[in-house]
Amino acid sequence: MPANKFNGFTDYGVGLGLRIPHYDHILSKKPTVDWFEIISENYLVDGGRPLAILDQILEQYRVVQHGVSLYFGSAEKLNRSQLRRLKNLVRRTKTPWLSDHLCWGSVDGTYSHDLLPMPYTFAAAKRTAEKIRQVRDFLEIPICVENVSSYTEYHVSEMTEWEFLTEVVERADCGILLDVNNIYVSSKNHDFDPYDYLRGVPHHRVAQMHIAGHTRFEKYILDTHDHPVLDPVWKLYAHATQLCGVTATLLEWDDKIPSFQEVHDEALKANDYVAGARAAVPPRPAVASRGASRS
Amino acid sequence: MKRPARKSSRGAARFAPAQVTTTSELAALQRAMWKLISRPLTAGSRMPRRWIDGRLTREIAAQIAKPNDRLTSFDRLEIYSRVYWFRVLDSLYDDCPGLRAVLGGPRFMKLAEAYLVRYPSRSFTLRNLPGRLARFIREQPELTRPYTALCYDTARFEWARVEVFDTAAFPLFTADDLRSADPARLRLNLQPYLQLLKLDYPVDEFILAVKQREELSRGEASNTSLTAPGEPVRATKLPRPRAARTYVAVHRVEGTIYFKRLAPAGYKILTAIRAGRTLQQALTAGIPASLHPQGDWAGAVQGWFKNWMELGWFCRRE
Predict the structure, then answer these.
(1) What is the DSSP string of A38-51?
(2) Which residues contact A33 (CB under 8 A, 6 or more apart)?
(3) Cα Rg of chain A, angstroms
(4) A48 and B167: CB-CB below 8 Å?
(5) pLDDT score at B232
(6) ipTM, interface predicted TM-score of the complex
(7) Is residue B4's pLDDT more than 50?
(8) How high is the pLDDT of residue A291?
(9) Which of A13, A107, B12, B60 has CB 3.0 to 4.6 Å from B34, enough for a Cys bridge?
């Protein structure tokens, strides 16, 4: 939805990921950009250039924090020192919401630095939701979880990915950062209909969307963020905005990064779909069916 | 008390749990998958065919992942293994241009892989990945022989650069803070980001030469190197530096990292200040008593302090 409690009742428009190769352009040219998404981990430091740059950005732009290492889905406890640093950064950026991934990535204090897929079980959903609540209570801001691209499925899974996402966000009462490209990538890797996925998530919890490019290999698709957004993903995005309403949208471009203008132009294509969705009759804000609820 | 491992239908201990209905089973599944994907890849960047105990890796992969009509369980988990290893090795590759130049690309990658097996990341950020590399080089000298001492200094220097880049800076100490101070009691404080190194090799000059060489190998319009990670840079090979005791401060000015050579006495004074000694004790530590009478020490020390103040190395205690 455009503004809801999961994105701090904001209506942010189309944003860009803040990336180092664009620092000089942004700071010198001050282009008009709705908002920037930062990777929190890049600024969880005590000083130096990262924070100096961030402070300059914050003087001019709205910033939203997106993380890659909270690992809500890891069985182990949250890292308290990381959370303390995160809270300091939240105070600095005044981010209206904070997002991280619905995945795991650490085991017994060792970090993979990857977004590993969850086994879709009720026990995993319960543990994950518990940790999301702990993070929200500590940081005191809305939390959104992002669906990841995946390349494997587990024998132990008890439900579909979208049922698992629903189970987690309902238990945690948190928002969804709906990554449309990730849905597409996983749908091809696991042979499901991405439109079933879109229909299956609770639309009223969608607080932000991600779009990105991917790379097709012979036997699978990899979420590489090094291309423009492909047509099937734009179509899926258009459908998602119809279902969920217009919401903050961000283009991710993390590798082989072209000029700022090229990335910005690509992101602004989202406005064509946003205009269509704004013109359409607003969808009824209803909870999607929860096919996997446990009695 | 640990729960006994579940047995498979054939009686062998299961590698991964057959169900995840509790948090401990979730932990067991994650441990199993992590063990599998964090094992080093073969020379052909594949997961090893045999597991440590002799079983076929595909058999234990099949306990975790479902196959599909295009990929086996092994293939699907191998994607994660490759992504993990490429990511952490790339990260070290970027952080350690000096070590790469000393050892050459292939030998550096062997060192990096062995290091990551012994010391996998224990931090949420890749920034901290090289933090224990110098220690590892000392623990496993056979991986860097006959350049172990040079590699040790280079790893310390490259880690110092990481620390200098984003460690905190405190408000500057000013001349006003000296008013009515008693030198016998006065304790100065160094900026937390300032790194002081006593080296057996002039690594600072070597790193500068390495950086210059790498800049030459980059295209002007591109932010990516012309060579893929892991490949040796196609440029003139740099001569390794000869041993020479070197004292260096690694510091920053407006976000840019600089190296500054120090006189031995200057280094001793600064390290004594960092250790919490009074100004008087620090000066005594730095300047040998037999040399005190020589007049030019006063001028030299005065010049050092003036320079260090200008560079913002002293801060107020937080």
Answers:
(1) EEGGGG-SSSSHHH
(2) A15, A16, A26, A61, A264
(3) 18
(4) yes
(5) 47
(6) 0.93
(7) no
(8) 38
(9) A107
